Amino acid sequence: MGSSSTLPVAEAIATTPAENRPIVDIRTLSLIFKAADKPVTALDGIDLRINSGDFVSLIGPSGCGKTTLLRVIADLEQPTSGDITVNGLTPEAARLKRAYGYVFQAPALYPWRTVERNVTLPLEIIGLDKTERQRRSAQQLALVGLAGFEKKFPWQLSGGMQQRVSIARALAFEPDLLLMDEPFGALDEITRDHLNSQLSRLWRTTGKTCVFVTHSISEAVFLSTRIVVMSPRPGRILDVIDCDLPRERSLEMRESQRFQDIAARVRHGLAEGHSYDE
Amino acid sequence: MHARRSPMTPLVLLTLPAFALPVGGLAESPLAWWQSTPALLALAIVLASLVLARWTPRTAFTEALLLAPGLFAGAALPLVLLDGGVALDQAAGLWMFLAGILALLWHVMERLTECSGFFRHLLVPALFGVMLIYLWEVGVRGFQVPSVLLPPPSSIAGALTTQTANLEDDFFQTVIKAVLRGYLWGCGAGFAVAILADRVPFLARGLLPFGNLVSAIPVVGIAPIMVMWFGFDWPSKAAVVVVMTFFPMLVNTLAGLAASEAIQLDLMRSYAAGYWRTLLMLRLPNAMPFLFNGLKINSTLALIGAIVAEFFGTPVVGMGFRISTEVARMNLSIVWATIVVAGITGSLMYGGLSWLERTVTAWHPSYRRR
Ligand SMILES: Nc1ncnc2c1ncn2[C@@H]1O[C@H](COP(=O)(O)OP(=O)(O)O)[C@@H](O)[C@H]1O
Ligand SMILES: [Mg+2]
Hints:
Chain B: It is a multi-pass membrane protein. Chain B: It holds the Pfam family BPD_transp_1. The complex is a heterodimer. Chain A is an alpha/beta fold. In chain A, 37% of the residues lie in helices and 23% in strands. The complex binds adenosine-5'-diphosphate and magnesium ion. Adenosine-5'-diphosphate (ADP) binds at residues 33, 35, 40, 42, 62-68, 235 of chain A.
């Protein structure tokens, strides 16, 4: 395991479907927050299996537990009941092995570090040498369109640019499992399209496994192999929709009938969640 | 936008009546302007520089430069007259003239503020400081204020030069021995205990109320006790400083350690960074503004604490000792000289820390420049 990210970027290898090894395996998992007034069931009976090379999007209205589910996978939140393994290990053991990279909903940059040193922060922690750190930082900053901003400080950048730095930081870590919580929520439409293409290409060529939280149906359909539709109070999985578009995606594909059909199914699922709720 | 300039012509006109009034008093009788050579000389120089500055082509800086001899001559006049035995308490004409000179200085400072960095940032504040000291000198001597109430700066400067050896010993005893050691120990211990209390929550809960209690005790309460415990020499003063600086540092460090956001901590956790790495790479940088706050508060507290503590028993040296004994002997200029030394020491400590803070925490919102 873990070798895919260091392979040369070659279509021939990457387009070979990854073996169906479960990376994340969740069984009847529930999580109840013990809030001051009354407990909140953030996740209720979640069953989900994410295989190596999958791109899974979590979609659903606010408060349906998307962030919480991602945080459980990342061992940032403890489930109340049920089982979960990440790379066959407990989430804690996986975290300690640095199994994943996490893009938070907010940029979470350290204001005393320059853009470059923010990107290299995890690389310092895992003990890479300086030249390698700078190489990776330059590569990922270029990918998110921020080449030339290395020496700036986060507060000299717009909110969208800051979020792109945080994406570059997660990518520079070169994790096999990428957990992203509405990473493009704060970006304008054009930048968002651009980064969607980049992310899709990165996923296709490196064979990473991605779990991606979004509010946007078309973003979910464009990026994913599977779309998990969730509903709130209590947080449940309503439907898991296979998104069997070709692995190589282009933005034009969004106009195709196949794309529209899948999007309609997702929209339908979301609407059902609402009628179920109210 | 151009800065509004004060017009000079009405200013000159307003000053004109001054020359009908006496420039001073000599042997109980008024002295007119035309009777005093220094007065006429000063007047001539002032007029000459006014005329030159008015009718030569000029930039803000050359105008200031041309007006400088006039300012200098005008300002020197009261001092020259005083040295010549002229009394100034009835010299209405001279004071009006001086008001005009000050207005001129105002004008010059306004012009210099338009100039580039060096003049604006250094020369203007320096001129302003010199002006205050000058007014103090002229006021105190001109109106014969008793030196027990307020000695003129010149006699304080005199005490600074004649008493240098004593003042140096006092500085060494109080600042180097007591303040510096006490400050380093107090701040160091406050910081270390805060790190510990951050890991052991009951320590923080137990210590903070106690800290409030100690902070509420005035120095005059702590100092005699410390003298009883640690003797008359500097260790008791350093102990007072330790007691005074420990809790502010503890409280500020604890607040600083709590300043990291949950999401920043989650990020470190996602990298499987341990306690020490998280402390060094995230929590301490975030705590920096709080740490400097504590260090700055303490720099002032330490100096006050050590000086006041010396009022409660000390060997025959030290700034607090000097102040208390020389007040009793009516040597107010030595007292003031000691105050000057203390003031400069405190400003340098505070200024140095502020500079360091700006360098270290340039990223912080309060110092950011785009
Ligand atoms: N730390 C917490 N304590 C208490 N309740 C929480 C906490 N975090 C989230 N919740 C609650 O859990 C539910 C799911 O939240 P979240 O996972 O953030 O939703 P989403 O990301 O889908 O918008 C919400 O009702 C939210 O109020
Ligand atoms: Mg969320």
